[in-house]
Amino acid sequence: MAVHIRKCSIEDLALLQEISAETFKETFQNQNSPESMSAYLEKAFNLDQLRKELSNPCSQFYIIYSNDEAAGYLKLNIDEAQTEGMGNDSLEIERIYIRKSHLKQGLGKLLVYKAIEIAKQLKKEKLWLGVWEQNENAIAFYKKLGFMQTGSHIFKLGDEEQLDFIMTKSII
């Protein structure tokens, strides 16, 4: 299996939209109402929103390829792009998703390692993310990689408010 990770540019907008919506649906559609899913997908992954996020100098997107097929992606935030005020010494993993067809191949771990590498390059001291309290597989995955629950925040999915655990990993 040949794997590589590539930073996204504005030319990747359509692919980013496709993989974002697909992986979010695959991950959460069975636990949420169709109305909430539809509202969130339209708001978070429309082309204008993704173009704005891709153009933000404090955010970076990466696509991971397995045998030249886009298998997942990563979105990182620093400074004011972070979804919580975690400070300038932090890097946020806002989104990390792998297509269902590519799960259990170690690709998620490679994306976390990529985030750690970038955090170190940027001289950040910690990595953090929010993970839905009901996403037990993801919570176990992050714990295995050294993340610890350090708080929580509300995530809006359509009109629903859900609790996300904030998980943090020191990288110094």
From TrEMBL:
Entry keyword set: Acyltransferase, Transferase
InterPro entries: Acyl_CoA_acyltransferase, GNAT_dom, YpeA/RimI_acetyltransf
UniProt domain N-acetyltransferase: residue ranges: 3-172
Domain of life: Bacteria
GO molecular function, one term: acyltransferase activity, transferring groups other than amino-acyl groups
Keyword Transport: no
Classification via Pfam families: Acetyltransf_1
Record's keyword annotation contains Lyase: no
UniProt-recorded name of the protein: Spermidine/spermine N(1)-acetyltransferase
